[in-house]
Amino acid sequence: MLSVILIWSYMFLTTYLTGYGILRGVTRATPYLVRHQDAYLVCGLAGVAVYAQFFSLFGPVGLAANLLLCLWCVLTAWYFRRELAGQVRETWKSVLENKSGERGKMLAAGFLFLLFAYGASRGMIHYDTGLYHAQSIRWIEEYGVVKGLGNLHCRLAYNSSSFALSALYSMAFLGGQSFHCGAGFLALILSGVCLEAVGSLRKRRLRTSDFARVMGIYYLVNIFDEMVSPASDYFMVLIAFYIVIRWLGLLEEETKEILPYGMLCVLGVFLMTVKLSAALILLLVIYPACLLLWEKRWKEIGKYLLLGIVTALPFFIRNVLLSGWLVYPFTRIDLFDVVWKIPRGLADYDAKEIQVWGRGYTDVTRYDISVKEWLPGWFRSLAGSDKLFTAAAVTAMGVLFVYGIGMLCGLWKRRWNILLVQAVTAGSFLFWLCTSPLIRYGCVYVYLTPAVVFGGIYDAVLSGGVKCGGRATRTGSVGCSRRATWTGSVRCSRKAFRIDSAGDTSEGSRPEDWQAGDSRCSGTVSGWRKIFSLCAAAAVTLLLVYKMAALGKEIVSSYVNDYWIVQKDYENYETLPYEIEGVTFYYPVQGDQAGYEAFPSAPSKVEVEFLGADIRDGFQAAQ
Length: 623
Hints:
By secondary structure, the protein is mainly alpha-helical. It has helices spanning 2-29, 38-56, 63-79, 81-97, 102-120, 127-142, 161-168, 182-194, 197-202, 208-222, 232-252, 259-274, 286-294, 298-323, 344-358, 371-380, 384-408, 416-434, 439-463, 528-557, and strands at 477-478, 489-492, 495-498, 523-524, 575-580, 583-588, 608-610, 619-621. A hairpin with a 2-residue loop joins strand 2 (489-492) and strand 3.
């Protein structure tokens, strides 16, 4: 645990300073006040991962990479020393004076830091970590990127920017073990973001983003004993939660500036480099792109395009070097004729194996069976809670379709920005379901789709203001000359009008100057809306209490007085050696896992040829 705390402290400094430098550079031409400090951390984490990937193109990601990163951070801290010092003084002053409950927030942050450091120091190592995660990370630590590495083991071509990030912060160059703290650090950041839902619960006023936060907490509890593993799935899900939550928060704050949306889209590009199956989240770019194009802000468009290209470029270069394909194992894009290319037949077989595995089969010959054949068995194999959330997601897709049609027809208030987020999450869920629906691949869509769809509708119902001779607030205030009670209609100045599910008037006057958030009289809407809000808050509170209690019980029941100093190491397995052109390789005695220590290894003996005289030169399939 102590090792995790020390590495996280180093990660905090380097990612914060890197993110601060990037965002200050971006906002120099487009002024914008960053509202959440976690934006610096997440931006820095993505920036450092891109840097590690670029560095891997030229050599091993180890001591030299960290020294160069530290030099960048020192220069950034010196250049922005006055601003950073001012932030520190302001934060310290706020804590001492306890402004806006800052003291309590700091205590909560400290508790979360220690709690997640405990969880990230021990737990279960993912099966695929022993299969190829650990080996992929060690290859980056030892050599950087190696041409045709996928010929040694096809899964070593499953390129993910999270592996380069893990290699950078593994500290393997110190001569001890290779640490794996990246997923836990990202989980810690998301836990702080999700904790903001507590404030909404206190106010008994949940917004759409709060429902997403609740599902984020649900996921964090589920992976608490697994985040010790550097699996790319955890990085992908955690970042996807962050993007959706912060995007919804911007909409709820009625943020008009395009910059934060644009930067979240760049983060979406980074998410694609973590796991390509998450690429549909890039559809969120529709919103900022339309605004920028409409206003003809060509320089800003160029800036975001450049940031996106820089973010994605090392990922695609590494893909080509590792496998010979631009996007492995997708063979429809065939642009490169290189000697180290993984044979097309093997790549196609690998792609089919991924899909049938997600459907619950191990036999690739079942790839072409119809949805009617595999879907019932797949659904039955899900855990009870996953069945519930999957059914809720499917239901949410149907509700969203009807809701969208109603918006187009003008039956209720048009909320296109929220609808875009709902459509993107639902579309991502559908894409996952139709391709490789293994729950750990797409649980973020299973959880977020019902949360965002039903949460958005709930928010629309309870946030709808009512106007009659004045302006109404989002909390249900009614502008009228006397107190009104909600009974399905409101009478004011002897003229009645109804309120639909989104809060729009369907009869009576519809003033063009209606704005949410402004009240000109003291009337209030009460009744079923207030009861509905209280019930929703109570249900969410009960869910959170249940999950927290379950987590506490799990921690107590599995407690062992170990890993307080050093994080749990990778699991290693018995292997046998063999030689290829004088170089010793390893394969497991049983099964297909080799772990980290037996390096280089593959699940079985392979026949490959070196591209040169040294292992650094790469591999090609045996002729």
